[in-house]
From TrEMBL:
<protein>
    <submittedName>
        <fullName>PLK protein kinase</fullName>
    </submittedName>
</protein>
<feature type="region of interest" description="Disordered">
    <location>
        <begin position="1"/>
        <end position="43"/>
    </location>
</feature>
<feature type="compositionally biased region" description="Basic and acidic residues">
    <location>
        <begin position="3"/>
        <end position="26"/>
    </location>
</feature>
<feature type="domain" description="Protein kinase">
    <location>
        <begin position="41"/>
        <end position="299"/>
    </location>
</feature>
<feature type="binding site">
    <location>
        <position position="70"/>
    </location>
    <ligand>
        <name>ATP</name>
    </ligand>
</feature>
Amino acid sequence: KRPKPDSRPKSEEKPTNPDRIDDKWRPPPTITEPGSSPETYLTGRKLGKGGFAVCFEGRTKRTADVFALKVVKAKVEQKKMMEKFRTELQIHAKMHHPNIVEFLRAFTIGDHTYVVLELCPNGSLAEMVKARSCLSLPEVRRYMIQICGGVKYMHKRSVIHRDLKMGNIFLDSRMNIKIGDFGLAAVMADEQDRRTTLCGTPNYIAPEILSKSGNRGHDNKVDTWAVGVICYAMLMGVPPFQSKTQQEIYTKLRTLEYEWKIDSKNYVPQQAKDFVASCLNLNSAERPGMDELVEHEFFTMGAIAEELDISTLKASPLWL
Ligand code: ADP
């Protein structure tokens, strides 16, 4: 029986909206930034598309350096989308960390706004995990350490990402993690500040975001929850609460209904299960912060992959 189209989980999908750039749209072959010391970019292949943006490769004429050009419509009908984009730029521009996609600049030409970002040529974690079905423990440790490092940096600066998921975590040319898409990020005014907007993607959403009772809001521990979901998904190939419908996902996560289906191919040590369980705590106050997470025994009980090459996008590393 086919599920109704509107009841499918929108796990890694982006919602359609009228302000998104047409699929067939391509940028002109060269783009010259406005301003006194303009850079000219030669545009290249399409890298991907999101809820409202399309990304293309862009090479500077002067230095031949390659970047990702994220393009959005300059005039967006929906006020909410405009705000999303504005916060995204403001927050992202302040983030400078080896595991966060570097934001270089943004400018508008005609009907389009271009955001120049560090290029992540090896796609997202979502694509790699899909191709590999699950990753080896030394790889998971390496990626998790890098993810926690990037998130720790944000949290130190009072930024909550709020949309951490494998589709928003990219890989650079040396297979290093680069966290991107700050479209749902928020700045916390102080320790007591709690956000009350519903945001996130079903599979990665923390229970307190769903809870209507009392609406006590959420804090940076929603990112800890997502980190736990990501770790489980890298080890098992699918997110822990994966279900046919969004409602089923929500029911499962509210009751912590997930299991470790272990077979001969994917041995998961107790320390990894403990790591995930500590993140997937229904009580957000009991979830560890990033400082605590990076100290977890899971990272010290076994090998961490140091160098990984791009063959690991499609196949297990040779040492396995
Ligand atoms: P949106 O804000 O509309 O969700 P995203 O930021 O997710 O858009 O970007 C859309 C797609 O473009 C991504 O899924 C990815 O395929 C590609 N992309 C985004 N940023 C980069 C980057 N820095 N390097 C390479 N590809 C990228």
